[in-house]
Write a structure and sequence with these properties.
Length: about 230
């Protein structure tokens, strides 16, 4: 493993370069043969440091869960068996609401927000955005995030949602059926050091007002979600 890297009982020490090489190879050969032959590398260079990362953040944000590396290909056209990234998630305020971090061959990504699109959640979101006080507050939360270089994303309607005027001051927000913000970093030396933890922590902290707003105004769905 990379020089100076460690995880597990010693805590998070960075993401080793072997993790990036592993995912570069997986992107080129997404097969059981590739995976089986390099499973120990995945466990040591990907899963262990990512688990250590979320464990370090648990005291402030809550316990994190690593997503399974296998893809659900039952209804997918793409039958590639493995995900070409490792994601981890901290749930906050209900289904599809929380903090996210992802590692892949292109580097590290940290984000937070609302990721599901249950009809009752979408309805509550639009009611809140339509209301001047919470709607304006959401704009005030998002503006400095954009200014700091974070990308505001989410599933959006291409057209105006029913019941809202074309000149609504927050029409762009009303189109959202999910809403999250994040920042991506390309691989640099700090990725292999404990400084990677500091970057994820700082990003999640900057996104806490957004998560809090969504927890208050969107919350958990009251309908059973279809698993993807």
């Amino acid at each position: 493993m990379g020089e100076g890297w460690h995880s597990g009982a010693m805590g998070f020490g960075g993401i080793p370069d072997e993790a990036l090489i592993f995912y570069e190879g997986l992107a080129a050969d997404n097969s059981k043969t590739y995976w089986t032959g390099r499973k120990e590398i995945y466990e040591a260079a990907v899963r262990a440091p990512m688990q250590a990362l979320v464990d370090e953040l648990a005291g402030e944000f809550g316990a994190g869960t690593l997503f399974r590396p296998h893809r659900d290909v039952r209804f997918a056209r793409d039958k590639s068996p493995y995900k070409t990234h490792q994601g981890a998630y901290v749930r906050a305020g209900g289904e599809g609401l929380g903090y996210y971090v992802q590692l892949d061959a292109d580097g590290l990504y940290a984000a937070a927000g609302w990721y599901t699109a249950a009809p009752d959640q979408v309805e509550r979101f639009r009611v809140a955005v339509d209301d001047d006080k919470p709607g304006t507050r959401l704009e005030e939360i998002l503006e400095p995030l954009r200014g700091a270089g974070l990308t505001i994303e989410g599933d959006r309607l291409k057209t105006r949602p029913r019941g809202f005027a074309e000149d609504h001051p927050r029409l762009d927000l009303l189109r959202h059926r999910s809403l999250h913000a994040g920042r991506r970093w390309q691989p640099e030396d700090w990725l292999h050091m404990p400084a990677a933890l500091d970057r994820v922590r700082a990003t999640w902290r900057s996104l806490t007002p957004l998560v809090d707003w969504l927890t208050t105004h969107v919350g958990a769905t009251e309908k059973p979600m279809r698993r993807r």
